[in-house]
Structure formats: C-alpha cells, structure tokens
Design goal:
Helix content: 25-40%
Largest sheet: 7 strands, mixed
Keywords: ATP-binding, Nucleotide-binding, Transport
GO molecular function: ABC-type transporter activity; ATP binding; ATP hydrolysis activity
Number of strands: 12
Order of helices and strands: EEEEHEEHEEHHHEHEHEEH
Strand order of the largest sheet: 2-12-11-6-10-9-8
Distance between the termini: 33 Å
Structural class: alpha/beta
CATH class of one domain: Alpha Beta
Low-confidence stretches: 1-9
Protein name: Teichoic acid transport system ATP-binding protein
Strand content: 25-35%
CATH superfamily of one domain: P-loop containing nucleotide triphosphate hydrolases
Radius of gyration: 21 Å
Mean pLDDT: 83
Organism: Actinomadura viridis
CATH topology of one domain: Rossmann fold
Family: Belongs to the ABC transporter superfamily.
Shape: globular
Length: about 280
C-alpha cells in the first residue's frame, strides 16, 4: 500500500489513478485510509410524477416497484494522516468530502478497503444528541455528557462553552429551534471543542459565522492539534482551509486529485475550477 517518502511536495493523481501513498517515517500515523470505497444504495420510483401518497399507493399495489441504484461516492481513496495534522478536504459538490469524513468517523461501512485509526474519531457537533426543543443551556449539558464528560467536567466547561459560542444576549436559555443556522453552528462547535479528541472531524462548521468567530475557531483548532491527534476540516471557504490546515486533500468524483501543501493544492484547485 505504501512506499517510503521521497519528497514532501504535493502528489497528484491523473485520470482515475490515485496519487501514490507515501510514508513519513519520522511521524506517528493516526489515521490510515486504505483503498476505501463507499457505495450508497438508494431507491427510486419506477417513473412518472405524483405526490408521495400516490407513490406509496403504487408501491402497495406493486406497480412501478422501486428500483435500487448504487452511488459510488468514494472510489479507492488511500492516504495516511499523522498525529498533529490539520487536513483540509476540498472539492466541488458531490465529490465525496462529507462521505469521506463520515467513513473515517465510522458512520458509513466500507464497500471495500478500510479505515484504521489510533483512537476514537469524533464528528463535530454531537448533532444526534442535541434537541431543538431544549434550551442551549440544556443542550450544552446533554452534548457534553454525550461526549463522555462527567457532570463535574461539564460544569467546569459550561461558562467556557457559552463564551465561545457568543450567542445573542439571553439566547442560551431559549430553545435551539429559535436559533439561526449560524448560532446553532457556533454552539455545536463550542460543545464539540470542549474536550480533547483523538481525531476531530469538522464538516462546514466554519462556513457560518463572522470574522471574529472564525478567528476563535482557528485558534481553537490550533489548540486541538497540539492536544489531540488530528483534525479534518471540510469547508467551501478556501481562506479558512489555507489559514487553518497544514495539508489539503482535493477530492474529485470520489478520488484524490491532489494531496499536499495547502497553497499549492488550493492554487491548482482554483485554476481548475475557477472558484
């Protein structure tokens, strides 16, 4: 799978060929992605238009039975992430960025290949644990407990989380259903960043928020890089990627197009996509 590291320049794939995976023997691997394929199986109706109720009726009557389709979202991806890395994952919509992060987090089973981690990956947000009908304050407690913090640790982290999220006055006691998307994203990031993660996976968390919050987020990620294993960041804002990450992986149609120094990879990506 791997060969000895010859140079630290970005590696580039051509056509369907993946970039060569290289090893830095001076660093400690924390995530190894080996020939990873992720395939979604989705269902589609047999054609025609109508309401959801009419579609269900056709299924019940065994008319136009749903067909199974496969979506090959990640295609033979291989790379090694090292302890202390902050890796930006870029690509156009549908390139497989979020799917890759979910696979590393263990939320999607590989069709082929595998993901190996030294430690527990954590997807940013503890979204499944947060409840829209509860206040931000109650969700802080719920989110921290869901991440494995004790009640004493949660109490000690509470004020830090509230300050970092920087919600409008009084909103910490309002239900999260009243929050804007930006407020919700800030609170989720603040909760997730309240503990040290072996591998932290952030999907678009920094896309929403003002310059002040993005600066705090960048500083927090730097802290996590020192204390944790590795950070993966998906964001459409390339400036955030360049400022935050020491390495960038460019995905194109589920394959690695380029992997290496942020400035060089981002320059090539911008030239190729015009973004």
């Amino acid at each position: 799978m791997v060969k000895a590291l010859k140079e630290k320049a970005p590696v580039t794939g051509t056509g369907s060929q993946q970039p060569e995976v290289v090893v830095d023997p001076t660093r400690e691997p924390i995530v190894v992605v080996d020939g990873l394929h992720i395939v979604y199986r989705v269902y589609s109706g047999g054609g025609g238009k109508g309401t959801a109720a009419s579609a269900l009726l056709r299924i019940v009557k065994r008319e136009n039975r749903p067909q199974t389709k496969e979506v090959h979202a990640v295609r033979g991806v291989s790379f090694i992430a090292y302890r202390g890395d902050a890796i930006g994952v870029i690509g156009t919509n549908g390139s497989g960025k979020s799917t890759l992060l979910k696979a590393i987090a263990g939320l999607l089973p590989p069709a082929r290949g595998g993901v190996y981690t030294d430690g527990q990956p954590s997807m940013l947000g503890v979204n499944a644990a947060l409840m829209r009908d509860l206040s931000g304050s109650r969700n802080i407690v719920l989110g921290c407990l869901a991440m494995g913090l004790t009640q004493e640790e949660t109490k000690a982290k509470y004020e830090e989380i509230v300050k970092f999220a920087d919600l409008k006055k009084g909103f910490i006691d309002y239900p999260m259903s009243t929050y804007s998307s930006g407020m919700g994203a800030r609170l989720r990031f603040a909760i997730a960043a309240a503990r040290t993660h072996d591998v932290m996976l952030i999907d678009e968390a920094l896309a929403t928020g003002d310059a002040k919050f993005k600066k705090r987020s960048k500083e927090k990620i730097e802290e996590l890089r020192k204390d944790a294993g590795a950070v993966f960041l998906v964001a459409h804002n390339l400036d955030v990627i360049e400022e935050t990450c020491n390495r960038v992986i460019w995905l194109d149609e589920g394959r690695i197009k380029m992997d290496g120094d942020p400035k060089e990879v981002l320059r090539a990506y911008t030239e190729a996509t015009g973004k």
